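Students often ask why inverse folding is considered easier than folding. One informal answer: many sequences map to the same fold, so there is more than one right answer. In these notes we will look at a single instance of the problem. The structure comes first.
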């Protein structure tokens, strides 16, 4: 049965007549090393070739062989004197060559992980039925740190997880199950090389010996796949684990405690990545509890892992603000003054937007504003605010939009991509048979890795690639699915939060509309706080007349956002409070344009359904029916958002529905 377990690594048989280019190719897999990583690469090639071409490849040098390895561990590769110098540790070279009279394909790299990545790249070409003749391809990753953050709790539940429970079986560990290896294969296939195992709202128990032994087992399972393990650490661990009375980062005993803890971890896991920390955020403990700042806290932990080459990812998701401060200002106001104060093994991890993983936000003004600090971009692969496990929302275009956003600083041409050293995606992986809750959510895991590898990759090309690997190479299917995916995220923006509206989701679960909520104890959790709608108008004034948050951007960008004539429509109500009668660039009033935009969102989902229906018969019936059902649910959800939102705005503005708007069913 097609149940989605194989993800994009399906390796289904490809008909010989459709792929004459593979005749006499991939006849053998030659590896001169038996190291775990080279063995993993060779075994993946055998698996893929066996599946696709239905043959068992030999292991000797012959016509059609695939030779894999590094110059250090393969005499054959060494002898070929390949141009690997510029490829770093993780890059790879795929090249067609003749060696000792045999026409072969070489997968070579300086590091063994590069060989593994190159092997996946070669298999990907075959899965897409592309030629593997005359190859001369080399690739290197844009970033050294391409991460997943799991928000998995030790009790097995996943915070904001919509695909079952955690795949970390803490009961069973340190015995590692096969699924964990498949997880590592999937990550390696898209170049993800780091994983934080546990929730940022961390349980201190993860740092106790019994858990560390389990973590060690996972680290061992991932090591051949080039994946390093990190842990979320609770800042108050020295207290929680019963040793000290304080967690003050300047207290010598606290510093010694973390140092000893780091030493203990590195004795077990010599290549342990380091810690991710959520501090002084949403009730989590942190240095401010002791009158210290984020840099004091981060640096203390950085000093503990530094001798072992470890890193501290310190999150900038904070909003403990004053009563009159605009919540979206908070992270910048707190972190910008700390630029230059962090150790060089601290990376400040910033969410893509200044708020919280909304369907659309402008980029966080911290990108480009902290040139003396290493920054990571944090995105959310799991769709907390984008329908969760309902329907389809392919997030490639959203991440690409963020990466390509011009920050105009530190240099005039800077974009977000140029200001970061790492990308961390909050994982959508759970123990559902298909891993991610819906089949199309697999594409978001895939795209996260591919975009972290190549920050400027075209999200449409990534969608096209994933489609071919996942749904096959029928041209009609590729075109339809890619186009459906490419419009899907914008559809969610249209029916949930058009024109810069934001955070209108139901309280705490964040699923479905609740723009009417205004009475939550924490004011900045209220949808009403964000939309500020009343009888006369709607939107949050973030110009100088309002919270002045626009001013956190580089002057040129700030001027665009703050100018009603220049602000892009998609950020209008993010930066401006305007009357319902405000004239849009289209000439329409805001009210009419808003209603039309909700309608457009609903219509887009209808079109997605029609596109999918057209594929019945082209795609296996089980998966086809599953997605059709997902899309039916999305259709209902889109209507729910539209009708509830419009009805609520009408209860404030008493304006009639514009002509042409269909009456709610
Ligand atoms: C969101 C999310 C929380 C999460 C938080 C974070 O607010 O709803 O579940 O803990 O982000 O990123 O820390």
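Output (designed amino acids):
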């Amino acid at each position: 049965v097609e149940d989605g377990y194989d993800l994009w690594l399906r390796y289904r048989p490809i008909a010989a007549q459709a792929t004459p280019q593979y005749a006499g190719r991939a006849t053998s897999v030659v590896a001169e090393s038996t190291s775990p990583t080279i063995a993993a690469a060779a075994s993946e090639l055998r698996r893929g070739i066996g599946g696709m071409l239905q043959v068992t490849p030999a292991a000797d040098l012959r016509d059609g062989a695939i030779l894999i390895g590094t110059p250090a561990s393969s005499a054959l590769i060494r002898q070929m004197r390949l141009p690997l110098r510029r490829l770093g540790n993780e890059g790879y070279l795929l090249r067609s060559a003749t060696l000792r009279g045999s026409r072969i394909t070489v997968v070579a790299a300086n590091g063994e992980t590069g060989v593994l990545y190159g092997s996946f790249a070669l298999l990907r070409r075959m899965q897409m039925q592309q030629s593997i003749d005359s190859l001369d391809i080399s690739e290197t990753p844009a970033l050294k740190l391409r991460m997943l953050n799991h928000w998995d709790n030790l009790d097995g539940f996943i915070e904001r997880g919509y695909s079952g429970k955690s795949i970390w079986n803490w009961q069973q560990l340190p015995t590692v199950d096969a699924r964990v290896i498949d997880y590592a294969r999937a990550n390696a296939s898209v170049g993800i090389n780091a994983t934080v195992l546990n929730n940022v709202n961390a349980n201190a128990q993860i740092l106790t010996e019994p858990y560390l032994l389990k973590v060690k087992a996972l680290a061992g399972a991932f090591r051949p796949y080039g994946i390093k393990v990190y842990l979320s650490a609770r800042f108050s661990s020295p207290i929680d684990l019963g040793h000290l009375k304080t967690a003050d980062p300047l207290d010598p005993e606290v510093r010694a405690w973390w140092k000893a803890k780091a030493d203990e971890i590195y004795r077990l896991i010599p290549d342990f990545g380091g810690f991710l920390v959520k501090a002084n955020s949403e009730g989590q403990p942190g240095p401010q509890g002791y009158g210290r700042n984020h840099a004091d806290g981060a640096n203390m932990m950085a000093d503990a892992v530094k001798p072992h080459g470890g890193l501290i990812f310190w999150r900038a998701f904070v909003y403990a603000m004053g009563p009159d401060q605009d919540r979206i200002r908070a992270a910048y106001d707190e972190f910008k003054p700390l630029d230059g104060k962090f150790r060089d093994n601290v990376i400040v991890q910033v969410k893509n937007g200044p708020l919280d993983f909304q369907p659309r936000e402008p980029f966080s003004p911290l990108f480009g504003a902290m040139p003396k600090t290493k920054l990571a971009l944090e995105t959310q692969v799991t769709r907390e605010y984008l329908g969760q496990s309902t329907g389809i929302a392919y997030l490639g275009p959203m991440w690409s939009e963020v990466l390509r956003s011009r920050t105009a600083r530190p240099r005039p041409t800077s974009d977000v991509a140029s200001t970061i050293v790492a990308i961390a995606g909050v994982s959508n992986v759970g123990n559902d048979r298909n891993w991610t809750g819906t089949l199309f959510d697999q594409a978001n895991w895939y795209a996260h890795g591919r975009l972290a590898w190549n920050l400027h990759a075209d999200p449409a090309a990534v969608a096209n690639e994933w489609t071919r690997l996942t749904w096959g190479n029928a041209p009609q299917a590729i075109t339809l699915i890619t186009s459906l995916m490419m419009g899907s995220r914008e559809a969610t923006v249209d029916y949930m939060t058009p024109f810069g509206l934001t955070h209108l989701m139901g309280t705490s679960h964040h699923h479905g509309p609740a723009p009417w909520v205004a009475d939550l104890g924490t004011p900045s959790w209220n949808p009403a706080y964000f939309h500020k709608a009343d009888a006369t108008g709607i939107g949050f004034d973030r110009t100088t007349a309002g919270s002045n948050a626009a001013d956190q951007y580089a002057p040129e960008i700030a001027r665009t956002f703050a100018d009603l004539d220049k602000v892009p429509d998609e950020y209008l109500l993010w930066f401006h409070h305007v009357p319902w009668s405000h004239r849009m660039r289209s000439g329409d009033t805001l009210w009419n344009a808003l209603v039309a935009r909700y309608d457009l969102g609903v219509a887009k989902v209808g079109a997605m359904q029609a596109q999918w229906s057209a594929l019945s018969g082209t795609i296996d019936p089980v998966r086809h029916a599953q997605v059709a059902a997902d899309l039916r649910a999305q259709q209902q959800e889109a209507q729910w958002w539209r009708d509830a939102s419009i009805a609520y705005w009408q209860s404030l503005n008493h304006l009639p529905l514009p002509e042409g708007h269909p009456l709610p069913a």
